[in-house]
Amino acid sequence: MTPHLTVAIAVIVIGSGALHAAWNAIAKQVDDRVMAFALMGFPQMLFGGLAVALTGLPGRTAVILAVASAAIHVGYELALLNSYRLGAFNQVYPIARGTSPLVVAVGAYLFAGERLGVMPLAGVAVLAVGLMSLALSAGRLTRAELPAISVAALTGLTIASYTIVDGLGVRAAHDALAYGGLMFALQGPVFPVVAAVRRPAARWRDRSLLQRGLLAGALSVLAYGIVLWAQARAPLAEVAAIRETSVIFAALIGMVALKESFGTRRVAAAIVIAAGIILIAA
Questions:
Q1: In a 3-state reduction of DSSP, which class is residue 115?
Q2: Which of 185, 181, 180, 199 is nearest to 36 (CA)?
Protein backbone atom coordinates (compact mmCIF):
# COMPACT_ATOMS: atom_id res chain seq x y z
CA MET A 1 0.00 0.00 0.00
CA THR A 2 1.42 3.40 -1.02
CA PRO A 3 1.49 5.79 1.97
CA HIS A 4 -1.19 8.44 1.46
CA LEU A 5 -2.41 11.19 3.77
CA THR A 6 -6.20 11.45 4.14
CA VAL A 7 -8.31 14.00 6.00
CA ALA A 8 -9.24 11.39 8.61
CA ILE A 9 -5.59 10.55 9.29
CA ALA A 10 -4.71 14.25 9.53
CA VAL A 11 -7.49 14.92 12.06
CA ILE A 12 -6.51 11.91 14.18
CA VAL A 13 -2.83 12.96 14.16
CA ILE A 14 -3.79 16.51 15.24
CA GLY A 15 -5.58 14.89 18.18
CA SER A 16 -2.38 12.99 18.94
CA GLY A 17 -0.56 16.33 19.02
CA ALA A 18 -3.02 17.67 21.60
CA LEU A 19 -2.49 14.59 23.77
CA HIS A 20 1.27 14.98 23.41
CA ALA A 21 1.20 18.62 24.52
CA ALA A 22 -0.97 17.61 27.49
CA TRP A 23 1.38 14.94 28.83
CA ASN A 24 4.38 17.20 28.34
CA ALA A 25 2.65 19.93 30.36
CA ILE A 26 1.99 17.43 33.15
CA ALA A 27 5.65 16.38 33.15
CA LYS A 28 6.75 20.02 33.18
CA GLN A 29 4.61 20.72 36.28
CA VAL A 30 6.17 17.86 38.28
CA ASP A 31 9.19 19.07 40.27
CA ASP A 32 10.82 15.63 40.38
CA ARG A 33 10.88 14.81 36.67
CA VAL A 34 12.94 11.65 37.13
CA MET A 35 10.03 10.28 39.14
CA ALA A 36 7.57 11.61 36.55
CA PHE A 37 9.30 9.70 33.75
CA ALA A 38 9.70 6.66 35.98
CA LEU A 39 5.95 6.53 36.63
CA MET A 40 5.27 7.09 32.94
CA GLY A 41 7.23 3.90 32.31
CA PHE A 42 4.58 1.71 33.95
CA PRO A 43 1.76 2.35 31.44
CA GLN A 44 4.36 1.91 28.69
CA MET A 45 5.43 -1.46 30.10
CA LEU A 46 1.82 -2.56 30.64
CA PHE A 47 0.73 -1.67 27.11
CA GLY A 48 3.94 -3.04 25.60
CA GLY A 49 3.71 -6.36 27.43
CA LEU A 50 0.05 -6.87 26.55
CA ALA A 51 0.63 -5.95 22.90
CA VAL A 52 3.59 -8.32 22.49
CA ALA A 53 1.66 -11.10 24.24
CA LEU A 54 -1.23 -10.56 21.84
CA THR A 55 0.69 -10.18 18.57
CA GLY A 56 4.04 -11.88 19.17
CA LEU A 57 7.34 -10.37 18.07
CA PRO A 58 7.56 -8.69 14.66
CA GLY A 59 10.19 -9.74 12.11
CA ARG A 60 13.94 -9.43 12.69
CA THR A 61 14.35 -6.06 10.94
CA ALA A 62 11.50 -4.57 12.95
CA VAL A 63 12.95 -5.95 16.20
CA ILE A 64 16.32 -4.32 15.48
CA LEU A 65 14.62 -1.01 14.71
CA ALA A 66 12.47 -1.26 17.85
CA VAL A 67 15.60 -1.76 19.98
CA ALA A 68 17.23 1.26 18.33
CA SER A 69 14.08 3.32 18.81
CA ALA A 70 13.81 2.43 22.50
CA ALA A 71 17.41 3.61 23.03
CA ILE A 72 16.71 6.87 21.17
CA HIS A 73 13.52 7.39 23.18
CA VAL A 74 15.50 7.15 26.43
CA GLY A 75 17.92 9.77 25.08
CA TYR A 76 14.91 11.90 24.11
CA GLU A 77 13.46 11.69 27.61
CA LEU A 78 16.81 12.70 29.14
CA ALA A 79 17.06 15.68 26.78
CA LEU A 80 13.43 16.64 27.41
CA LEU A 81 13.90 16.40 31.16
CA ASN A 82 16.84 18.80 30.99
CA SER A 83 15.14 21.21 28.59
CA TYR A 84 12.23 21.58 31.03
CA ARG A 85 14.69 22.13 33.87
CA LEU A 86 16.43 24.92 31.96
CA GLY A 87 13.67 26.78 30.10
CA ALA A 88 10.04 27.84 29.91
CA PHE A 89 7.56 25.32 28.50
CA ASN A 90 6.23 27.72 25.85
CA GLN A 91 9.74 28.29 24.45
CA VAL A 92 11.55 24.94 24.66
CA TYR A 93 8.55 22.83 23.58
CA PRO A 94 7.96 24.64 20.25
CA ILE A 95 11.69 24.64 19.47
CA ALA A 96 11.99 20.91 20.17
CA ARG A 97 8.86 19.97 18.25
CA GLY A 98 9.48 22.42 15.41
CA THR A 99 13.02 21.21 14.81
CA SER A 100 11.80 17.68 14.22
CA PRO A 101 9.86 18.14 10.91
CA LEU A 102 12.89 19.80 9.33
CA VAL A 103 15.09 16.80 10.06
CA VAL A 104 12.37 14.24 9.34
CA ALA A 105 11.79 15.77 5.89
CA VAL A 106 15.47 15.24 5.05
CA GLY A 107 15.60 11.79 6.67
CA ALA A 108 12.45 10.61 4.90
CA TYR A 109 14.00 11.68 1.59
CA LEU A 110 17.30 9.89 2.31
CA PHE A 111 16.04 6.70 3.98
CA ALA A 112 12.42 6.21 2.88
CA GLY A 113 12.56 7.66 -0.64
CA GLU A 114 9.88 10.25 0.13
CA ARG A 115 10.29 13.45 -1.94
CA LEU A 116 8.83 16.79 -0.98
CA GLY A 117 7.07 19.06 -3.46
CA VAL A 118 7.30 22.83 -3.79
CA MET A 119 4.80 23.63 -1.00
CA PRO A 120 6.40 21.34 1.60
CA LEU A 121 9.85 22.71 0.75
CA ALA A 122 8.46 26.23 1.26
CA GLY A 123 7.11 24.98 4.57
CA VAL A 124 10.59 23.85 5.61
CA ALA A 125 11.90 27.38 4.93
CA VAL A 126 9.02 29.03 6.81
CA LEU A 127 9.45 26.64 9.72
CA ALA A 128 13.14 27.46 9.92
CA VAL A 129 12.32 31.18 10.11
CA GLY A 130 9.75 30.53 12.83
CA LEU A 131 12.20 28.52 14.90
CA MET A 132 14.83 31.23 14.63
CA SER A 133 12.25 33.83 15.63
CA LEU A 134 11.23 31.82 18.66
CA ALA A 135 14.84 31.30 19.72
CA LEU A 136 15.27 35.09 19.52
CA SER A 137 11.89 35.86 21.11
CA ALA A 138 13.53 38.16 23.65
CA GLY A 139 14.86 40.27 20.76
CA ARG A 140 18.32 38.76 20.99
CA LEU A 141 19.79 35.48 22.14
CA THR A 142 20.85 35.97 25.73
CA ARG A 143 23.49 33.92 27.49
CA ALA A 144 20.86 32.78 29.99
CA GLU A 145 18.62 31.35 27.23
CA LEU A 146 21.36 29.53 25.31
CA PRO A 147 21.46 26.32 27.42
CA ALA A 148 17.68 25.82 27.23
CA ILE A 149 17.54 26.52 23.49
CA SER A 150 20.51 24.22 22.80
CA VAL A 151 18.98 21.32 24.74
CA ALA A 152 15.60 21.95 23.10
CA ALA A 153 17.22 21.71 19.66
CA LEU A 154 18.98 18.49 20.74
CA THR A 155 15.60 17.17 21.88
CA GLY A 156 14.25 17.95 18.41
CA LEU A 157 17.04 15.90 16.83
CA THR A 158 16.16 12.89 19.00
CA ILE A 159 12.48 13.30 18.07
CA ALA A 160 13.37 13.31 14.39
CA SER A 161 15.63 10.28 14.86
CA TYR A 162 13.04 8.08 16.52
CA THR A 163 10.35 9.29 14.10
CA ILE A 164 12.38 8.08 11.11
CA VAL A 165 13.40 4.81 12.81
CA ASP A 166 9.82 4.09 13.89
CA GLY A 167 8.43 4.95 10.47
CA LEU A 168 10.74 2.38 8.92
CA GLY A 169 10.12 -0.08 11.75
CA VAL A 170 6.33 -0.03 11.67
CA ARG A 171 6.40 -0.59 7.91
CA ALA A 172 8.90 -3.43 8.24
CA ALA A 173 6.69 -5.03 10.91
CA HIS A 174 3.46 -4.59 8.88
CA ASP A 175 1.79 -4.34 12.29
CA ALA A 176 1.81 -1.09 14.29
CA LEU A 177 0.61 -2.86 17.43
CA ALA A 178 3.40 -5.47 17.39
CA TYR A 179 6.12 -2.92 16.68
CA GLY A 180 4.82 -0.29 19.12
CA GLY A 181 4.29 -2.88 21.83
CA LEU A 182 7.87 -4.09 21.60
CA MET A 183 9.27 -0.56 21.54
CA PHE A 184 7.28 0.47 24.63
CA ALA A 185 8.16 -2.76 26.44
CA LEU A 186 11.87 -2.06 25.90
CA GLN A 187 11.69 1.66 26.70
CA GLY A 188 9.39 1.51 29.72
CA PRO A 189 11.63 -0.09 32.39
CA VAL A 190 14.61 2.28 32.11
CA PHE A 191 13.47 5.23 34.24
CA PRO A 192 11.68 3.05 36.85
CA VAL A 193 15.00 1.26 37.44
CA VAL A 194 16.87 4.57 37.70
CA ALA A 195 14.30 5.99 40.12
CA ALA A 196 14.27 2.80 42.21
CA VAL A 197 18.00 3.29 42.80
CA ARG A 198 18.08 7.08 43.18
CA ARG A 199 14.80 7.95 44.92
CA PRO A 200 13.60 7.04 48.46
CA ALA A 201 10.61 4.75 48.95
CA ALA A 202 8.53 7.69 50.25
CA ARG A 203 8.53 9.27 46.78
CA TRP A 204 6.72 6.22 45.42
CA ARG A 205 3.91 6.75 47.96
CA ASP A 206 3.17 10.36 46.93
CA ARG A 207 -0.41 10.05 45.67
CA SER A 208 -0.41 13.29 43.68
CA LEU A 209 2.85 12.36 41.99
CA LEU A 210 1.56 8.86 41.24
CA GLN A 211 -1.63 10.18 39.66
CA ARG A 212 0.13 12.73 37.46
CA GLY A 213 2.93 10.40 36.39
CA LEU A 214 0.63 7.52 35.49
CA LEU A 215 -1.77 9.85 33.64
CA ALA A 216 1.10 11.33 31.64
CA GLY A 217 2.30 7.83 30.81
CA ALA A 218 -1.13 6.70 29.61
CA LEU A 219 -1.47 9.82 27.45
CA SER A 220 2.02 9.30 25.99
CA VAL A 221 1.20 5.72 24.98
CA LEU A 222 -2.06 6.77 23.33
CA ALA A 223 -0.49 9.79 21.60
CA TYR A 224 2.45 7.91 20.15
CA GLY A 225 0.44 4.81 19.36
CA ILE A 226 -1.67 6.99 17.06
CA VAL A 227 1.50 8.28 15.39
CA LEU A 228 2.79 4.75 14.74
CA TRP A 229 -0.58 3.79 13.26
CA ALA A 230 -0.48 6.87 10.99
CA GLN A 231 3.13 6.27 9.92
CA ALA A 232 2.11 2.92 8.48
CA ARG A 233 -0.46 4.67 6.28
CA ALA A 234 0.89 8.13 5.37
CA PRO A 235 4.25 9.72 4.43
CA LEU A 236 6.59 10.17 7.40
CA ALA A 237 7.32 13.86 6.81
CA GLU A 238 3.64 14.72 6.57
CA VAL A 239 2.69 12.79 9.72
CA ALA A 240 5.59 14.38 11.63
CA ALA A 241 4.64 17.86 10.43
CA ILE A 242 0.94 17.57 11.27
CA ARG A 243 1.70 16.09 14.67
CA GLU A 244 3.77 19.14 15.52
CA THR A 245 0.70 21.35 15.41
CA SER A 246 0.98 20.39 19.08
CA VAL A 247 3.02 23.61 19.44
CA ILE A 248 -0.28 25.53 19.28
CA PHE A 249 -1.82 23.39 22.03
CA ALA A 250 1.41 23.82 24.03
CA ALA A 251 1.18 27.60 23.68
CA LEU A 252 -2.39 27.58 25.03
CA ILE A 253 -1.50 25.22 27.88
CA GLY A 254 1.54 27.32 28.75
CA MET A 255 -0.57 30.47 29.02
CA VAL A 256 -3.67 29.01 30.70
CA ALA A 257 -2.45 26.13 32.88
CA LEU A 258 1.19 27.03 33.57
CA LYS A 259 0.62 30.81 33.75
CA GLU A 260 3.63 31.48 31.52
CA SER A 261 3.87 34.83 29.76
CA PHE A 262 3.91 34.16 26.04
CA GLY A 263 4.49 37.66 24.70
CA THR A 264 3.84 39.14 21.26
CA ARG A 265 7.09 37.86 19.76
CA ARG A 266 6.48 34.29 20.84
CA VAL A 267 2.87 34.39 19.63
CA ALA A 268 4.06 35.58 16.20
CA ALA A 269 6.82 32.95 16.12
CA ALA A 270 4.40 30.16 17.06
CA ILE A 271 2.05 31.24 14.25
CA VAL A 272 4.94 31.15 11.75
CA ILE A 273 5.97 27.69 12.99
CA ALA A 274 2.40 26.43 12.61
CA ALA A 275 2.22 27.90 9.08
CA GLY A 276 5.44 26.13 8.12
CA ILE A 277 4.17 22.85 9.51
CA ILE A 278 0.91 23.18 7.54
CA LEU A 279 2.84 23.90 4.33
CA ILE A 280 5.05 20.83 4.86
CA ALA A 281 1.90 18.75 5.15
CA ALA A 282 0.27 20.38 2.09
A1: coil
A2: 199
